Amino acid sequence: xxxxxxxxxxxxxxxxxxxxxxxxxxxxxxxxxxxxxxxxxxxxxxxxxxxxxxxxxxxxxxxxxxxxxxxxxxxxxxxxxxxxxxxxxxxxxxxxxxxxxxxxxxxxxxxxxxxxxxxxxxxxxxxxxxxxxxxxxxxxxxxxxxxxxxxxxxxxxxxxxxxxxxxxxxxxxxxxxxxxxxxxxxxxxxxxxxxxxxxxxxxxxxxxxxxxxxxxxxxxxxxxxxxxxxxxxxxxxxxxxxxxxxxxxxxxxxxxxxxxxxxxxxxxxxxxxxxxxxxxxxxxxxxxxxxxxxxxxxxxxxxxxxxxxxxxxxxxxxxxxxxxxxxxxxxxxxxxxxxxxxxxxxxxxxxxxxxxxxxxxxxxxxxxxxxxxxxxxxxxxxxxxxxxxxxxxxxxxxxxxxxxxxxxxxxxxxxxxxxxxxxxxxxxxxxxxxxxxxxxxxxxxxxxxxxxxxxxxxxxxxxxxxxxxxxxxxxxxxxxxxxxxxxxxxxxxxxxxxxxxxxxxxxxxxxxxxxxxxxxxxxxxxxxxxxxxxxxxxxxxxxxxxxxxxxxxxxxxxxxxxxxxxxxxxxxxxxxxxxxxxxxxxxxxxxxxxxxxxxxxxxxxxxxxxxxxxxxxxxxxxxxxxxxxxxxxxxxxxxxxxxxxxxxxxxxxxxxxxxxxxxxxxxxxxxxxxxxxxxxxxxxxxxxxxxxxxxxxxxxxxxxxxxxxxx
Amino acid sequence: xxxxxxxxxxxxxxxxxxxxxxxxxxxxxxxxxxxxxxxxxxxxxxxxxxxxxxxxxxxxxxxxxxxxxxxxxxxxxxxxxxxxxxxxxxxxxxxxxxxxxxxxxxxxxxxxxxxxxxxxxxxxxxxxxxxxxxxxxxxxxxxxxxxxxxxxxxxxxxxxxxxxxxxxxxxxxxxxxxxxxxxxxxxxxxxxxxxxxxxxxxxxxxxxxxxxxxxxxxxxxxxxxxxxxxxxxxxxxxxxxxxxxxxxxxxxxxxxxxxxxxxxxxxxxxxxxxxxxxxxxxxxxxxxxxxxxxxxxxxxxxxxxxxxxxxxxxxxxxxxxxxxxxxxxxxxxxxxxxxxxxxxxxxxxxxxxxxxxxxxxxxxxxxxxxxxxxxxxxxxxxxxxxxxxxxxxxxxxxxxxxxxxxxxxxxxxxxxxxxxxxxxxxxxxxxxxxxxxxxxxxxxxxxxxxxxxxxxxx
Lengths: 711, 458
What we know:
The structure holds 2 protein chains of 2 kinds. Chain A is α/β, with parallel strands linked by helices. In chain A, the strands form 9 sheets. A 5-stranded parallel beta sheet of chain A has the order 7-6-5-11-22, with helices on one face. Chain A has a 5-stranded parallel beta sheet with strand order 13-20-14-15-16. Chain A is built from 18 helices and 30 strands. The longest helix of chain A has 23 residues, at 461-483. By secondary structure, chain B is of the alpha/beta class. Chain B folds into 2 domains: 2-115 and 193-208 and 377-455, 3-Layer(bba) Sandwich (FAD/NAD(P)-binding domain), CATH 3.50.50.60; 212-373, FAD/NAD(P)-binding domain (3-Layer(bba) Sandwich), CATH 3.50.50.60. Chain B has a 6-stranded parallel beta sheet, covered by helices on one side. A 5-stranded parallel beta sheet of chain B has the order 14-21-15-16-17. In chain B, strands 5-6-11 form a 3-stranded antiparallel beta sheet, with no helix packed on it. Chain B is globular, with a radius of gyration of 23 Å. The interface between A and B is large, with 90 and 93 residues.
């Protein structure tokens, strides 16, 4: 390791030379045994110098002491060498006073850290195993069908499992659909039969109806699936899985206050659809024609929010049903009451089309009371309508909008994963698959398994058809990436994965519990076993391990610890405090860069060490830092909790838990707990960073110099 | 990643040009276009992004935070930019616009016009040029609020991180001070517009949206009173890297805003303007009310609406914001906006539908929740009248793409199947929120790959 040929390439451009003494940096590099070169711009023609050194075999580990690793990524991608970027520009020259001794020491420390890292990292050897280019689609509704069509047409073998006897899902039960395209008029027929026919005609698709999943084990690229079919058990291997398990109406007890289950002529939109499909809209009480039909939508803000799932779908369904009630019986009248009508986008045109029908009355309004009259007709009293106070109507039928609850919410065993962390996809409080749902809505916490359609989010048929295709792309992508031994989102292309030094494992199981993606299983000896293709390479297991046996080729407690220890700690006179900042590379680190771009100044006593996720920080690193003489340690992570921003789901949340341990350790070392501080930094918070970091430095300085200095 | 600026155009020359049958062109580098590109590239295909601005990221880069998590868009952009930087299968052209598309699925030929950036790939983003530049321009990124120099970095997280010269503000060779200041030979004031020809097997149109021109709405006082702004301007004002450093102030005098009113459907759901609902404006106003309340515990926000559109789980976001008693809503349309002669504050006259009364409210700031117009529309923003959006079912042909019969509807959103082998994604298909745009773009990438698979044998 010590013999590794390291090249230190020290850039003087972009005002680095004006801020720090580049000669001294070069001398440090030479002293550390590096081949040293300088340039006013390594990002331009002189990048060739680096490539030539590597090509000639003079250098196997490159340290570029120049700009942030977030820029010139392609320029400094050097084939045949590992590359470390030492951020002298954004995080030294641009954010600290030029020519100041503390700025110089900061630069020297960053170079020491970079060289130390370069000496220790190894190039990851990818995990590549023969993979299966096949996709399992669970659920043969519209989302599942379009996912299957897409994957099959792209050349993948597809297996479809549907629990009903027919493909088609809810679409089979619908009478009509609402219009999906300009000019948004009329009610097109359901066309799912055509898609089913197309799917059945494809040679590379196997369809199992009346079937379900008995178990799934393994990992992306090679999931072993066992299906229960009418013909018995079927075993197969697939590369990725799409969970298009659909939705079901919200339990009807929720609607009791509207008379559902009490009065025969109060029904739901789902029941009405089935009635219409049979050809007549009648009063359930006596089979007589329903001439006056009242549709009641979730009244939004006034409601107790039983129904977080309906949204735009239920408004559109009610508008559609109002139209076909009129179409089936031109003498019928439809009344539609809502809190706020939800017809986003171009569906507004459809709303207008329904408004134009004189037989449909639309108004805001809340139901005050529903009661029965002598012949089971219903007397409905409403408030807050545009018809004036105390609106009362007598109707034949009241139709309540059915809420759409995702089947993922009820954990009905559709996936039956043989995963230590549970059989189903982890879900949000709404029951939808947990993900960073704004930016990366298809990600789930089970790599290689993607949800689609109404199981992923309440949506209509057109949206589900598109959604299925998108999930199919994610499935195909997961197979491509795992075949190459590469991670999928967010560390796309990363070929490192954790290794375990099993002789020292205490079988505590913490890594298996804390992995956000369920990548680790336990074997019969209760030792952790990694499924590399499930792994997202966040390093949270590495942060979790109490005996530090988990490491990546290019990221480990050893490497980070050596970098921390490479920092020179000045004498214990309190004049030059030193603070270690472990910073999330996705949010806090870019924020520090942007502070630099804006030439904002923050304390030069802070040494920033980027980490893959703040959850990957093992508490031993904090101990190492204070033992080494750092006066304080700051952990810069992102927002946790319900609106978490962590790209690894709960890295920042885990940090909070681990802090308790760290404070205890500090206590044992007779050090003040205030020396370790957790700071939440969002990427856009860079303007506040100077004041946040100054406050942090002040708080640590107030505690006084670390008494461990010099030991 | 391979960026293609003026000094080097890997698209034209190098071996980077992959098999046409495995290449997808994405027109538009906003969140939909970026998503389509990275998702397709990570599935093993080549992606080429054509972006008209000097940076990728589009509209989301201009947003302060996303609803419903109130999280910064830079967070997801950072990940996506990293996916682009690390992936040699993705190339992009900035300041580029499609001139013409010819050919057929599996083998399209696309002529792309490149506007001169006047700054080449040698730019290190050191900022020395800005210090010497004598000319200024209104900051387009901030919707004209504030100024930048004629040579500028579009925003803090601009990608690619290269400067650009606005040639409508720069004297070019007559000044050239930046050329002297630049130590890296990165500025070329003689750069000319150029054209490149690219080939692709399938094309995704992700051209996005633009804010509806609020000057066309004559009763709401935009352009007449300084303290009437649009929702996109509000995003910039609230952003720490915006024109006021993130302080929400009255544009007229810079005083802090103690009360703000939001006008929903400013242009949307209106036959004289945009006939459709722009989907995101109710949620955006609720979000912006939260910005104001976060900054100023004494401030009040009042929202005038027709329907509060917070579909699905967004309802919980609305509930959270509206649980703050200082954020109030009123169902009703604005009759007019005037200025109080004494205080100079704005007076909003509105109807209150539920109480059937007229109301008057004095506020410091009026935010118009202007809608989203498809960028496929070529009508100049100064046009006096919006088109009539009475749905008539007719089709139009956009000249923006000059792609032959590229189907758009009368509202300028792409039709269901715009053209064989050409797919629309994101706000080119309709007014969507960010999550829907991302979903839509992922689906478009899947459909484009399907086209490549179908035509591969041809």
